[in-house]
Specification:
Elements: H1 46-63, H2 65-68, H3 78-99, H4 104-137, H5 144-154, H6 174-190, H7 196-217, H8 229-250, H9 261-272, H10 279-299, H11 305-338, H12 343-382
Helix pairs in contact: 1-3, 1-9, 1-10, 1-11, 3-8, 3-10, 4-6, 4-11, 4-12, 6-8, 7-8, 7-10, 8-10, 9-10, 11-12
Amino acid sequence: MIADPRVEEGPGEGPGEWPGERPGAQPGARDAGRPADVSGGHEIFLGLEGLRGAAALLIVLRHASDFTGLPLPSSHLAVDLFFVLSGFVLAHAYDARFARGLSAAAFMRLRLIRLYPLYLLSIVAAAAGVVIWRVVAGPGDWSALHLTQAFALNVLYLPAPSLYGEAYPLNLPAWSLFLEICACAAFAMTWRRLTDAVLLAWICLSGLLLIGLAVHYQTLSLGWDWTTFAAGFVRVSFSFPLGVLLYRKLRYMPALGIGAWVPLALAVALLCLDAGRWQVAYEIVCAIVLLPLLVVVAARTTPRLAAARLFAFLGVTSYAVYVLHVPALTICQQALAEIGVRPAEAGPAFAAAFVVVLVGGCWLADRVYDVPVRGWLRRRWAGGAARGAAPASGDRSADLAPSPRLPPEIARPGVE
């Protein structure tokens, strides 16, 4: 999860768009198989907000299994869900802006502005925790050279050598953020060639590779360590383009008349299930069919009243929860070890308290650190990119005209 991020538009930005972007108003019909040139608005898919937030919390519980005693064997599929969400909502937010001339470089600046401040905070917090632990309890497994090397590489989003094989020793989930950045770069650089036919061919190829890897490793929990790091690229190469294609082809799916809690509850159930001897087949079906389908269903639901506020809150905290929970959990584990308390002794009560404090702290970090820092970075470095290369004229009809940079066979989109 990614994954998945707010629209870097500046004025009017609102909460909770990770790992995708803030969706715009529904665009009009377009020529089949081609990127649309339509204007984005300011709608938020609250159903996706809740889906993303719940998945992030399940990842936290997965990593806190020493406290809860719940291994949650399918929860790693939340990362595949994040990648689908990223493709879906980034296509929604940026298809129109690419059509109006947004460059790949400008897009990547916006993505890094969105993702990096909280990521930097997580790496600094993790490194500080290691330094404090070395002072309090002695060097332990972390030598000064090892820490310096890990910090220098991880702070640049790059994987680093580690004692236990993980690619990001200071913040384990960062591997998925690195893959998301790679997917974003590929999406931006190839956007004008990403017809539906190209996307479908790529999804089929990467899907076959994904099935082969799942059978070979007997799991889809791939990409987080050096042994399977390359396999992580296959996960994102399948799920991210699938999200893009689902948005382009299925966004006109009518509302199903079901509550927003239904896809959320189904997603949580899928990510918690232990399929026993059928686990590998179950993970393949979830990653390829069931979780992407729930993204489409959730995008067509609208929570009401208090539920809408809850879903929005889950969305606004989801990225911070995902990127900060491992450093925070590691510091807590070190503190407990210093006073002689094992995770199993702290138990589920500690895990519940940790989640509550984590979510509250992440909300605060978003408000007092992430939003102001990103606003400053946008004003300083994003420039016109933050407005998506919008037409200079105030005439909104210009947004519906085919871009001169688009292939000539793209028809003028209609209006819904």
